[in-house]
């Protein structure tokens, strides 16, 4: 009789694919009330029985046999009614009781098979531990926080389970995200509860690997559109976030992250300014780009920088289109008389001590700039960039962003920054939202995991749904690590990736 593995809240499939990565076999039963979630799960896990049902009403007895063993059950109940990100909004009572469905299913499986699930793993926000009753306004009662959580744990223990929980950061296990979550393991068998060993840390010290940066998963062949000259101007708050991000992660950073923008191929990567920069051709008319991520959520403090460098793991991905890629285009500036065009290939810069962050405004004749090889459109962009720099930073170095200068910059002034002793003109600043595929990889999903497909009605699966699935998902690497640590005896082989069409060769391949 086949042993069973169940995923109780199988949305995008993060837990399911993580278990599959650990064991080399698919899960057997996936439950979710949302047809859109089941659609994505089904296309990636075709051998799984999918139940599009309410977790509080599903009847597993129809799908299990007496004497059958449920070796493992994973449950990640909706976390929005427990998360701090919920803010001051009223809480939905129905969502808040979802963790109790785990206890209900355990009892149901006991009646159907004669035994409890041997291992139950759970994932949620850390605030699940504060789960308690609500007042008449659907707000948590502070003096009674944690009551329902303790009751749930006690009920599970009364069934005979041993229980341990920890808060773990996904980046510590090799995922390119710093998503922090509460994980729990309940065991009914006689085997010990095992927590996976940490393999990474922020700086790569103590014999561990350095955190995996998000830069490895961003497509820099698509840098979006200029923030200037748009038909619909960007919101003031968005421009503020870009300005703060550039100051913190580019201008004031002792080691900003830079990438080539004219690079093709699959192995496109960024690099530190302390590594030599290869010669850059004029394919795009630009030299190097210093990228960063900004967030579209409101700041919680007046001067807070809602952004990050791309050489760090991405912060928590949620269900909304939250992250934008901002990039400042830089090109080496050649003063008149040096015999080189502004758009000539950038010379190799070798390693040497230097400081990135000295902003200055250089006076130069507009006609002279055009004569050096810059077209009128690029020169106009230089002007817009200079106005942006002057407005947010002034012409001084290290000026506070709170001291906004509304100086009108004329066409003969262009913003420069100093990189390792060389002056660079800032030609443009681009911005775009991160694509679902990038968020998927940032969440730790395998590259072959399918999130873009056509529904049964022939219509494409919307990007908004793709982002929701990713934001609600378990980080696959975490599900894999916990499964490997606690259920290694269930391993039957290695995961086989989804077959995809190679766009270049027009042939099937394993991604």
TrEMBL record:
Enzyme Commission code: 2.1.1.37
Top-level taxon: Bacteria
Keyword Methyltransferase: yes
InterPro entries: C5-Methyltransferase, C5_MeTfrase, SAM-dependent_MTases_sf
GO biological process: DNA restriction-modification system; methylation; negative regulation of gene expression via chromosomal CpG island methylation
GO molecular function: DNA (cytosine-5-)-methyltransferase activity; DNA binding
Enzyme class name: transferase
Active-site feature positions: 79
UniProt signal peptide: none
Keywords of the record: Methyltransferase, Restriction system, S-adenosyl-L-methionine, Transferase
Keyword rRNA processing: no
Listed Pfam families: DNA_methylase
Family according to the record: Belongs to the class I-like SAM-binding methyltransferase superfamily. C5-methyltransferase family.
Protein name: DNA (cytosine-5-)-methyltransferase
Organism: Clostridium sulfidigenes
């Amino acid at each position: 009789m086949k042993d069973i593995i169940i995923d109780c809240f199988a949305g995008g499939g993060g837990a399911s694919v993580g278990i599959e990565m650990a064991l080399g076999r698919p899960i057997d039963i996936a439950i979710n009330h949302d047809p859109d979630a089941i659609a994505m799960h089904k296309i990636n896990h075709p051998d799984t029985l999918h139940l599009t049902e309410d977790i509080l009403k599903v009847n597993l007895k129809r799908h299990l046999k007496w004497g059958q063993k449920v070796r493992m059950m994973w449950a990640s109940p909706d976390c929005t009614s427990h998360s701090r990100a919920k803010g001051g909004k009223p809480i939905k009572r129905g969502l808040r009781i979802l963790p109790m469905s785990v206890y209900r299913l355990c009892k149901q499986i006991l009646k159907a098979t004669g035994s409890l699930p041997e291992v139950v793993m759970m994932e949620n926000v850390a605030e699940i531990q504060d789960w308690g009753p609500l007042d008449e306004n659907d707000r948590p009662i502070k003096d009674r926080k944690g009551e329902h959580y303790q009751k749930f744990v006690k009920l599970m223990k009364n069934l005979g389970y041993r229980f341990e929980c920890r808060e773990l950061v996904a980046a510590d296990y090799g995922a390119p995200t710093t998503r922090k979550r509460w994980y729990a393991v309940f065991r009914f068998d006689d085997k010990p509860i095992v927590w996976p060993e940490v393999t990474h840390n922020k700086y790569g010290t103590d014999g561990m690997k350095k955190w995996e940066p998000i830069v490895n998963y961003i497509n820099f062949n698509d840098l979006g559109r200029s923030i200037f000259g748009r038909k619909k101007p960007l919101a003031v708050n968005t421009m503020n976030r870009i300005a703060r991000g550039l100051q913190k992660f580019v201008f004031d950073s002792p080691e900003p992250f830079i990438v080539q923008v004219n690079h093709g191929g699959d192995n496109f990567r960024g690099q530190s300014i302390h590594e030599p920069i290869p010669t850059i051709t004029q394919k795009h008319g630009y030299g190097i780009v210093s990228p960063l991520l900004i967030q579209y959520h409101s700041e919680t403090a007046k001067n807070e920088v809602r952004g990050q460098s791309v050489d760090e793991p991405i912060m928590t991905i949620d269900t909304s289109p939250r992250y934008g890629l901002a990039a400042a285009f830089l090109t080496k500036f050649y003063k008149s008389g040096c015999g080189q065009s502004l758009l000539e290939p950038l010379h190799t810069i070798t390693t040497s001590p230097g400081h990135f962050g000295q902003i200055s405004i250089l006076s130069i004749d507009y006609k002279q700039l055009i004569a050096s090889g810059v077209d009128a459109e690029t020169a106009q962009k230089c002007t817009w960039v200079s106005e942006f720099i002057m407005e947010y930073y002034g012409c001084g170095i290290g000026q506070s962003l709170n001291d906004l200068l509304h100086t009108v910059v004329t066409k003969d002034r262009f913003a420069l920054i100093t990189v390792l002793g060389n002056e660079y003109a800032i030609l443009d600043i681009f911005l775009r939202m991160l694509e679902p595929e990038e968020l998927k990889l940032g969440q730790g999903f395998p590259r072959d995991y399918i999130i873009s497909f056509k529904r049964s009605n022939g219509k494409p699966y919307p990007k908004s749904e793709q982002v929701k699935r990713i934001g609600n998902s378990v980080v696959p690497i975490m599900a894999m690590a916990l499964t490997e640590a606690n259920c290694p005896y269930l391993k039957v082989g290695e995961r086989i990736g989804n077959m995809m069409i190679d766009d270049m060769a027009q042939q099937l391949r394993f991604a």
